[in-house]
Amino acid sequence: MNVINGKKIAQNLQASIKLKVDTLDRKPGLAVILVGDDDASEVYIRNKENACKEVGFYLEIINRFDNISQEELLFEIERLNDDDKIDGILVQLPLPKHLDVNLVNETISPKKDVDGFHSENIGKLMQNKPFLHPCTPKGVMLMLESIGVDLVGKNCVVVGASNIVGRPMACELLNAKATVTICNSKTKNLSCKLIQADIVVVAVGIPKMIQSDWIKPGAIVIDVGINRLDNGCLVGDVDFESVRNVAGWIAPVPGGVGPMTIATLLKNTLTAYEARI
């Protein structure tokens, strides 16, 4: 069993981004909108803030109360769309229930959509003409690249069908000429599908759902889930301690996909910057 060190891969990617930024006259700009005071969201924002400082990005954090109206939030996004200092716009999720997430994503200019959620960017990914990739799936692809796996013809199973991870993850793997099955937590005989997989990517939000007897010996297992237990511990959707004895490679939680998501966000911001100059 080999552990895929997402933190180290992310650090290497950020170092390469910093080298590029150091040569630029204007620093790439990222704007992050945080609505409300969700504790987890604030942690994610701090991590993004630290990463931006490390690579030398200009960062603008916009805090708004959770009673902001849809109109006010869209006005804020439109302002950033027109701001020449800003190359990337990110609205931290989740949003309060009275706000329409889909409308928010569609209001962000696709040229500044560094989360990769705008339908134009998702459409380009589906057509294998990607511009700004959804961050977590792209981060997973970079992790697979780092261990030198040839995805052509590999049998891949994605567990989870969200618009943020599962669906674009399947597209990324399809674009790499893998054979892809997409499942969810309710899929019948899920273990039978997983046991045939060369590569498993899991993002369902159910702690330790995936057990060792579901995994083919030597398979690559990428755990995207982040779940906080009652005792405060962070665990993934994969039972790491048991699966690590079966898998050929495994991405842990924490220290796996999480750092890669932030590093890919920075890479998207640099890509958006370069497309504008």
From TrEMBL:
GO terms for biological process: L-histidine biosynthetic process; methionine biosynthetic process; purine nucleotide biosynthetic process; tetrahydrofolate interconversion. Residues 4-115 form the Tetrahydrofolate dehydrogenase/cyclohydrolase catalytic domain. Residues 134-275 form the Tetrahydrofolate dehydrogenase/cyclohydrolase NAD(P)-binding domain. NADP(+) binds at G160, A161, S162, I226. It catalyses: (6R)-5,10-methylene-5,6,7,8-tetrahydrofolate + NADP(+) = (6R)-5,10-methenyltetrahydrofolate + NADPH; (6R)-5,10-methenyltetrahydrofolate + H2O = (6R)-10-formyltetrahydrofolate + H(+). Transmembrane segments: none annotated. The keyword Amino-acid biosynthesis applies. Catalyzes the oxidation of 5,10-methylenetetrahydrofolate to 5,10-methenyltetrahydrofolate and then the hydrolysis of 5,10-methenyltetrahydrofolate to 10-formyltetrahydrofolate. Belongs to the tetrahydrofolate dehydrogenase/cyclohydrolase family. This is Bifunctional protein FolD. The lineage of its organism: Bacteria, Pseudomonadati, Pseudomonadota, Gammaproteobacteria, Candidatus Pseudothioglobaceae.
